[in-house]
Design a protein that fits this description.
heterodimer; A: about 260 residues; Cytochrome Bc1 Complex, Chain D, domain 2; 11 helices; B: two-stranded antiparallel ribbon; 20 helices; 8 strands; globular
């Protein structure tokens, strides 16, 4: 076969097209890091099992092909990270329509969650579930994490990560029970009312610093004693008017009691 | 031994030659004070103030009132390497690297909350018992001013650590100052030495917090106490207590012991709270950076009502009105509303005296029920204040009870006008009901719960007369007649001067006293007692005729 005949072969166009697509795809995947490589992490069996689970438990709101409906958003392209966050924290499936899905005991086990994630990841490229490497905070700077936390997170989640109210009954939940993986996923995917902190606005190293700081908030003992919920001066005010003044008034009544 | 006694005697003698020590002590040590737990509320405030002075001195040893930027290298790991103001750095140093520093800081802050809360509760007691009436009006004004000054002092203390929370507070206060029409911006530049936040405010606030205001407070406390001594303490009505005497115990030894002991208890409770309960965890807030803020940014409770008003007020603003921008959304809730509230508070004794026309001296306290309108006004004011305080914490309330902040805002906007009048009406009715009950107790005695069936079938309940002590309490009530409106012209046909104001006064006076239940006169009580005796005699007769046994309740 001469080179000319090869070029004129019917299949050549297809092969070149495929090759081009593969090279572009692989190159793009390499540039955008882990995001689209995630599909490969899951087996076809998982995807099939996930599809089945999806159609039983999720399709009512999100549509049979996850295309979304008036009851719930499309899940095409939200990625495995979003699925893992929502389902592993028990937020999905929702118990009833509400302003916001609260954290609760997860309905699915780890294998089922992985299958659901596999199915949704197979629908379109999106952020993958962060690896253990992504969550390794050994080299992260705690104090820098504190600054980043106060700049990006504290206005909704409060200075100590205990959560806060948003408009119209929505809220930023407490971070005290959230795992590093869930928080990393939340930053990647911006669940519910949370904005997305993608790797451009908040590079992975900074995300890890924040995780390190939140871990400190979750685990460090309170240097001043009972923290009163770490909610600021409101609980301090309640404490002084109930326990504090209550104690002193009781003493005053005792001292002022008539001796008979 | 005798040398010691001689020595002390000589020392006292020498002192006496130079100042009238022993005559002062002799006059005052035996001064009589009445006994009641509610008379100790002011003491809590006084002792908290002493604790504040003591712990404050300790804190000044290390605190640096400077906005100079430094990098933290102390022992609190999560902030190491972070740039911050020297003020915040020194506050962290006190908290983590000074022996007992955190404990003293927490005692200082808890004592500040105690100070304000105790003053407010003390004010409630004074208000609801009418202890502010002549001759004590001026002392009411001093006390009310101390609450206002304490509020400013507390705000200054809250701001000094220069952490994220206090910086947000200062930012809001800067906005409030700017909202003052025409001069606001100039005033802000004057106070901050230029643009917000600048480098001057913390050092200036420090002088204000540790020198100027404590000085004013100390002088006010002194004057307040001197006036209490001079006026003598008021007392609750009771047997043997009149407007012209004071029934109680002498200052020495009874009250010196009681008050001294109470000081140590207040100090002890404050120290226990500081040891076990965190207050203002400045390390967790981080240094103040203008582009950061935390959810749940609140002032200390005593400023909460201003914050609550600010959060609820609609976003009204006029641009270029009379050549200026008018921020009604800040001016009205944060400047005018507190201003009017303070003016009403300080002038209340004079307003009430004008309305009631009561110019007598009062040393016997009112029972709250006997001043129904005053009590209702007080309850109304507390409701108004309380709704605003709750709204000041609207985000925490929303979070704790799963409510919507937007709905809470509307609840406040409407509730702050609706609930206080309802509370006024309810409290007034409640007081009048209690007055009627008192009258009933005097006239008929207490229902004993013993039902007696007479031979002809009639049921009667036996009433037992109340004790003389109880009678003395109820009989202490003095009825004041409402002021009558003067005729438009006198007998010579000359128009009454200031007629309109006098008519208003009569109207207000009628509204104030109109429905008060008259205390029965002694003649009425006597008549009622006779009636009771007659009834009993009649019952005994009936029983006797029927040959029935006479129950002992009737013959007692």
């Amino acid at each position: 076969m001469t080179s000319t005949s090869v070029r004129r072969n019917k299949a050549t166009g297809l092969v070149v097209l495929l090759a081009g697509l593969v090279i572009t795809g692989v190159g793009y995947a390499a540039v955008t890091s882990t995001a689209e490589a995630s599909v490969a992490m899951y087996s076809q069996t998982q995807i099939d099992q996930g599809k089945q689970l999806f159609q039983q438990g999720c399709a009512t709101c999100h549509g049979l092909a996850a295309q979304g409906s008036s009851e719930g958003p499309s899940l095409i392209g939200v990625g495995a990270a979003a699925v893992n966050f929502q389902v592993a924290t028990g937020r999905m499936p929702m118990a009833q329509p509400a302003n916001q899905a609260p954290r609760k005991v997860p309905v699915y086990n780890d294998d089922q969650i992985a299958a659901l994630a596999a199915y949704v990841a197979s629908l379109g490229p999106g952020p993958a579930v962060p690896s253990d490497e992504d969550l390794n905070t050994t080299d992260a700077n705690l104090a820098e994490g504190g600054v980043l936390f106060r700049t990006n997170c504290a206005q909704c989640h409060n200075f100590a990560g205990h959560g806060g109210a948003l408009s119209n009954g929505k809220y930023a939940p407490s971070l005290m029970n959230a795992t590093p993986r869930q928080m990393y996923e939340a930053m990647l995917t911006g669940p519910q009312n949370m904005p997305v902190f993608n790797d451009k606005t908040l590079p992975p190293a900074e995300k890890r610093a924040i995780l390190k700081y939140i871990n400190e908030l979750q685990t460090a003992p309170s240097p001043g004693g009972l923290a009163l919920g770490s909610l600021g001066p409101v609980t301090e005010g309640i404490f002084i008017w109930t326990a504090g003044l209550g104690a002193l008034l009781a003493v005053a009544v005792w001292i002022g009691a008539k001796v008979r | 031994m005798s040398t010691v006694v001689d020595g002390v005697g000589k020392a006292i003698g020498r002192a006496d030659d130079r100042a009238p020590i022993s005559s002062l002590l002799k006059d005052n040590l035996r001064k009589v004070f009445p006994d009641h737990w509610s008379f100790m509320l002011g003491e809590i405030a006084l002792y908290s103030f002493i604790i504040l002075l003591l712990t404050g001195v300790y804190l000044t040893i290390w605190y640096q009132p400077s906005m100079q930027e430094v990098v933290y290298h102390g022992s609190y790991q999560p902030l190491v390497g972070i740039p911050m103001s020297e003020a915040y750095n020194s506050a962290l140093h006190i908290s983590f690297d000074v022996r007992g520093g955190l404990l003293i800081r927490q005692i200082h802050h808890w004592a500040a909350l105690f100070f304000m809360a105790a003053m407010v509760v003390h004010m409630f007691r004074i208000f609801f018992t009418g202890a502010f009436r002549k001759p004590r009006e001026f002392n009411w004004v001093i006390g009310g001013s101390m609450i206002l000054i304490g509020l400013l002092e507390g705000f200054a203390g809250y701001s000094l650590p220069d952490d994220l929370l206090s910086g947000v507070g200062v930012r809001i206060v800067a906005g409030i100052i700017e909202s003052i029409p025409v001069v606001g911006t100039y005033l802000l530049f004057f106070l901050f030495g230029g643009q917000y936040p600048g480098h001057d405010f913390i050092p200036r606030l420090y002088t204000f917090h540790v020198l100027l205001v404590p000085g004013i407070l100390l002088a006010s406390v002194g004057l307040h106490l001197v006036l209490i001594f001079y006026h003598k303490h008021t007392q609750y009505p009771g047997p043997g207590r009149t407007n012209d005497n004071v029934v109680g115990f002498p200052l020495f030894p009874v009250y010196t012991a009681k008050a001294g002991g109470f000081f140590f208890i207040v100090f002890g409770v404050t120290v226990l709270m500081a040891a076990f309960v965190t207050i203002n965890p400045i390390w967790a807030y981080g240094p103040y950076v203008p582009d950061q803020v935390t959810a749940g940014s609140q002032p200390d409770w005593y400023i909460g009502f201003v914050d609550g008003a600010l959060r609820a007020f609609p976003n009204w603003e006029s641009e270029n009105f009379l050549g200026h921008t008018w921020s009604w959304n800040i001016l009205i809730p944060c400047v005018l509303m507190p201003g009017i509230l303070v003016a009403l508070l300080l002038s209340y004794p004079f307003l009430e005296a004008w309305i009631t026309g009561d110019t007598r001296e009062h040393h016997l306290l009112d029972r709250p029920r006997n001043a129904a309108t005053r009590t209702a006004l007080g309850a109304m004011a507390i409701t108004f204040y309380g709704i605003l305080v709750i709204n000041g914490a609207n985000d925490i309330v929303a979070q704790a009870f799963n409510l919507s902040i937007n709905q809470l805002t509307w609840f406040t906007r409407i509730g702050v006008f609706v609930f206080p009048p309802l509370v006024f009406i309810a409290t007034r009715r409640f007081c009048l009901g209690l007055q009627r009950r008192d009258r009933d107790l005097l006239m008929h005695g207490r229902e004993s719960g013993q039902i007696l069936r007479l031979p002809h079938g009639e049921f009667i309940e036996i009433h037992t007369p109340i004790s003389d002590d109880e009678k003395a309490v109820i009989l202490a009530k003095r009825d004041i007649a409402p002021i009558e409106a003067p005729p438009a012209t006198d007998e010579n046909g000359i128009a009454t001067p200031g007629l309109r104001a006098k008519k208003w006064r009569a109207k207000l006076s009628n509204a104030y006293f109109g429905e008060n239940v008259k205390r029965p006169t002694l003649a009425e009580i006597e008549a009622a007692e006779h009636h009771h005796h007659d009834e009993v005699a009649h019952e005994i007769d009936v029983l006797h005729e029927a040959g029935a046994p006479i129950p002992s309740e009737l013959t007692d």
